[in-house]
Amino acid sequence: MRLAMLEFMQWFLVLCSIGCLIRLILGPRGADRLVALNVLSGVALGFLVLRGVQLGQVLYLDVALVYDIFGFLGFLAIARFLKDKLADQEDES
């Protein structure tokens, strides 16, 4: 029962990631794409944790932790870029 539930949750995360990818590609604004990228990062993190629990390997949890740190730093960099871009557009107006 436990393995079936872990398998179901992994497939659910795969479906969620497909939805995030669609929003990432079709998002009308940069903010929509940024949110989709952040959610996709969280989904990938959840998938790594579930995979590590299913296989009983701690290495997946270590990779998930490092991935989360770099994902957060990337999110901050993209947010700053979008903020600076918006500030430049307001200065030109």
Task: Give an account of the 3D structure.
The protein has one domain: Helix Hairpins. It has helices at residues 2-26, 30-55, 58-92. It is an all-alpha fold. The protein contains 3 helices and no strands.
Helix fraction by DSSP (H/I, runs of at least 4): over 70%
Number of helices: 3
Based on CA inertia axes, which overall geometry fits? elongated
- End-to-end separation in angstroms reads 60 Å
Summary keywords:
about 90 residues; Helix Hairpins; about 0% strand; single chain; elongated; mainly alpha
Short description:
The chain is mainly α and 93 residues long.
Write the layout of secondary structure elements.
Layout lengths: L1 H25 L3 H26 L2 H35 L1
